[in-house]
């Protein structure tokens, strides 16, 4: 988040963060309202009911691709942070073997057992630990900002508060960084007394808390490290001290705790992809569901581990998956489902507030997908090729001119 603030400025970054939170809350509310209207509390089967088989398949593929990408990002980040700490603590050389061993231990002995928990509500205490860690991280960055040797006002002198030229590079991060649409139905089912009103309150509180913590880390991290260069991972900016090592270790634990929140929706999508019964579960299927869920979870964790070991530099892939798959399931499809629900049920036009939310959420989702297509097709592929082509043509003309002069 400090990197995003450094790219677009404090003022614009704050506005985009609030906008991302509003979009997430509205999108989740739209999904929940549509599920209540259709009495279906599964993203996959809600899409099947309203939009057809293509939507169900799209939700399954996008959920699996998007959330597995998030899990891979967790592991890759831990691989960047933990080996140096372990090397200093155990006085062993830092190597690729240590990195692979660290990732394997975290994935198999921490992430996998947590992902095999039958009910996500059993992880509520661990979620409280995650919140406590992020508060600790915000406090650590705040103290680093106060101790900035260039003075607490250095960020104001050395930076700008408004840099819209970098908007396309960071807005997908603000928009999808708060996304929880794929977890809405999993969390709803885990409530002791499920109710739409209670779920909407939980979504609002969670989004507000995330905005507050993200802004604290982003703003004070910007203050602390603007003079030395803000890195993409704020933890890499921390100096090598005992407190910094503790923060990095706690982050690894928090990331491992967050694994089930991504694995559960992936597991659900794989099960609905395999299940051809249209959501109807027989007694025999109920008996086999535990074994099937366990096998799917193990396979998903292993795929995540192998991917993080073989492809350590996956920033482009994650940016592509987040801006396409993430934008589709988080913004585009919820808006389409609400519009289709209004048409099918024919209960009259949508309210002004609902229509406004649908239009904005849909426009943002489509805009993110088009921006990603532009970034990948032109900036990442065509532009370097054009530069190379122009350089080659220039060299050819120079050689031809030299031959003519001779």
Could you describe the 3D structure shown?
With 406 residues, this protein is mostly helical. It contains 14 helices and no strands. The protein is globular. It starts with a helix and ends with a helix.
List SSEs in N-to-C order.
HHHHHHHHHHHHHH
Distance N to C terminus: 59 Å
Uncertain stretches of 5 or more adjacent residues: 279-287, 394-398
Could you tell me the number of beta strands? Answer: 0
How many strands, which pairing sense, and closed or not: the largest β-sheet?
Answer: none
On the 0 to 100 scale, the average pLDDT is: 79
Which structural class matches the secondary elements?
mainly alpha
Which overall shape is indicated by the principal axes computed on the Cα atoms?
A: globular
The Rg value, from CA coordinates, equals 24 Å
- Percent helix, as a range, is over 70%
Into which percentage range does the β-strand content fall? under 5%
Annotation field: number of helices: 14
